[in-house]
Design a protein that fits this description.
GO molecular function, one term: iron-sulfur cluster binding
CATH topology of the domain at 99-202 and 351-416: FAD/NAD(P)-binding domain
EC number: 1.3.1.1
Strand content: 15-25%
Structural class: alpha/beta
Oligomer: single chain
Strand order of the largest sheet: 3-2-1-4-15
Enzyme class: oxidoreductase
CATH superfamily of the domain at 99-202 and 351-416: FAD/NAD(P)-binding domain
Shape: globular
Radius of gyration: 27 Å
Pfam families: Fer4_20 (PF14691), Fer4_7 (PF12838), Pyr_redox_2 (PF07992)
Number of strands: 23
CATH architecture of the domain at 99-202 and 351-416: 3-Layer(bba) Sandwich
Catalytic activity: 5,6-dihydrothymine + NAD(+) = thymine + NADH + H(+); 5,6-dihydrouracil + NAD(+) = uracil + NADH + H(+)
Distance between the termini: 39 Å
Helix content: 25-40%
Length: about 600
């Protein structure tokens, strides 16, 4: 192997698995250390740079960072990253004066944002401080999009939504509520906007067209039903409810049902548990509330008698597992009828664009979705951009935020007549964390504490009012314990070959055997000759240049390292150092910075 080039931002970025996994690349370890120091406002603002909605996402993010957390490689449970984000949001001071401010004079460019959800709001957040005149069009009478209509209040309080959305709207966006766009062509051609961003989500729930579907009014589309509950149009439901589907929307439907009258709720899953789409914690929360999850039942028919829904017929399924852990299409082994008063369909969502004319230069694919460039977020018609669920189908809020950041860069470039693909690359800073001979600016002791459990409102209390937030947030004591579980994966072990005397001190003291001095070779060969076999091929090996004494190389398995800093403490020559790697993610403000503009002019 050639010596590893650690000057490229992506090398150390990939070592910080939580940040690498986050679509918005939030600097997770850095904000956890700020929380550990009691600097909640600083932690909140660091979060906000990338994810824009720390209080919202601290409650409802799908947490792609947590399965990637390195803590999960040394014990069962990862750090409670998402819930620590909420700690910063809940305990911050007033940060209004620290928010971006719009300039006194606009730049004369007008941008229309369709939909007041997370993607559009992120675009507004990035463009308003640059002087753009932003108008947000929302069909409903309130902001937030699916964050407000599809996430129940017992998970995401309206106060949290209003506060973080208000930070953006108060920068000077023109908000037009109850203003449905019926014609994109008219908006583009008649209203004088320089660019248009579509962030309308995936607002259409999938149907289940089985016998009996249209013979009763007691069969509901999940996302429409949740919206109706959110706006208090629906205030009750039957005592026996079946939820069809087992994604996160299904979990919201079953838990909401219990709060407006249901006594017996079953979630009907067509496949075994290992193939559910719902997050583990969503399933746990539902089962804590005595929701029954029934596996291997495929819907066959709605049973309606004299116009009344009385049950649903299911095929009972059996599956064979293949050698890769997958399952076949299943075999029907029987049928059963389960009684019910209402059925809620939560089997997926789709994009819906009846208001986009098909003769205005926007290309649609075979699923009737716009074809969108994944880098620039622009469709085939110049000046029209998409993001969030409306671009690539249903995902989580954090994905929509990431799309919004990229779309804002593109909109800025488009409005300024620049090449949309000429984007600033990621950068990186490395800074030593040494404070003394054996002292570091971070807590490097490995803490054996188990993951803290989120305290919940008592079961008897949470069903009295649909607005009672179930999760209470971490206590001070829980926060102190949980922050110490972070392994500080952004504090890198940086090696300087010319200082190494090959004394093996670092190898002797490494508690996880991630260091080896050996002869060079090809990667496949090196992986078999290390102190501990490097079996995770998705994680890189660090390979030094040749060492001055024997011309061997230092090899480090990044997969095993727990960033304990013992190698740097033990090294007698300072060949090892602990340095914070900060990945610099460009945003629209960076593209518009005077230095960037001067460089282009030069």
């Amino acid at each position: 192997m050639k010596p590893t080039d650690t000057s490229k931002p992506d090398y150390f970025h990939k070592v910080v698995d939580c940040q690498w996994a986050c679509p918005a690349h939030t600097d997770v370890p850095a904000y956890i250390r700020l929380i550990a120091q009691g600097r909640f406002s600083d932690a909140y603002m660091l979060n906000r740079e990338s994810n824009v909605f720390p209080g919202i996402l601290g409650r409802v993010c799908d947490r792609p960072c947590e399965p990637a957390c390195r803590r999960g490689r040394v014990e069962e449970k990862p750090v409670a990253i998402c819930r620590l984000k909420r700690v910063a949001a809940d305990h911050r001071d007033d940060i209004t004066e620290r928010l971006p401010k719009p300039p006194a004079k606009t730049n004369g460019k007008k941008v229309a944002l369709i939909g007041a959800g997370c993607a559009s709001l992120t675009v507004a957040n990035d463009l308003l401080p640059l002087g753009y005149e932003v108008t947000v069009f929302e069909a409903l009478d309130s902001t937030g999009g699916l964050m407000r209509t599809n996430i129940p209040r017992f998970r995401l309080p309206p106060k949290t939504l209003d506060e973080e959305i208000g930070y953006i709207i108060d920068m000077g966006a023109e908000l037009k509520l109850n203003h449905r766009i019926d014609s994109l062509k008219s908006l583009i051609e008649d209203d004088g906007f320089d660019a248009v961003f579509v962030g309308t989500g995936a607002p259409r729930g999938k149907e289940l067209d089985l016998p009996g579907r249209h013979d009763t009014d007691n069969i509901h589309i999940g996302i429409d039903w949740l919206e109706s509950v959110a706006f208090e149009h629906t205030e009750s439901i039957g005592e026996n409810v079946l939820i069809i589907g087992v994604g996160n929307t299904a979990m919201d439907c079953c838990r909401t049902s219990l709060r407006i009258g249901a006594k017996n709720v079953k979630v009907m899953a067509r496949k075994p548990r290992g193939f559910f789409k719902a997050s583990d914690w969503e399933l746990e929360d539902a089962e804590e509330e005595n929701v029954e999850i029934v596996i291997n039942h495929s819907p066959k028919e709605f049973v309606v008698e004299n116009g009344k829904l009385v049950g649903m017929k299911f095929e009972q399924m059996e599956y064979q597992v293949d050698d890769k852990g997958g399952i076949d299409r299943g075999t029907v082994i029987g049928e059963t009828i389960i009684p019910c008063d209402d059925v809620i369909l939560a089997i997926g969502q789709e994009n819906a664009f009846p208001w986009i004319e098909r003769d205005i230069g926007i290309e649609f694919d075979k699923w009737d979705c716009p074809v969108v460039d994944e880098t620039t977020m622009m469709c085939s018609r110049e000046g029209v951009f998409f993001g969030g669920d409306s671009a690539f189908g249903p995902k989580n809020i954090i994905w929509a935020v990431a799309h919004g950041h990229q779309a804002a860069i593109s909109i800025h470039k488009y409005c300024q007549g620049e090449d949309l693909h000429d984007r600033l690359p990621h950068g990186m800073n490395l800074s030593s964390q040494k404070m003394g001979m054996h002292e570091w600016s971070f807590s490097n002791n490995y803490d054996t504490s188990e993951r803290r459990l989120m305290p919940h409102v008592d079961l008897r209390e949470r069903f009295k009012n649909i607005n009672v937030e179930v999760e209470l947030g971490f206590t001070v004591e829980q926060t102190i314990k949980e922050v110490e579980r972070c392994l500080n994966c952004d504090i890198q072990t940086v090696f300087t070959e010319k200082l190494c005397i090959e004394c093996d001190a670092c190898i002797d003291i490494c508690p996880v055997n991630c260091l080896t001095i050996t002869e060079g070779g090809e990667e496949a060969d090196l992986r078999t000759r290390l102190s501990a076999p490097a079996e995770n091929h998705e994680q890189a090996l660090y390979v030094s240049d040749v060492l001055p004494q024997t011309k061997r190389v230092m090899v480090k398995d990044e997969d095993l390292c727990v960033h304990c800093s013992l190698c740097a403490e033990r090294c007698p020559t300072g060949a090892w150092d602990m340095q914070k790697s900060t990945v610099l993610i460009p945003y629209a403000a960076d593209e518009a910075a005077p230095d960037r503009q001067r460089a282009k002019a030069g």
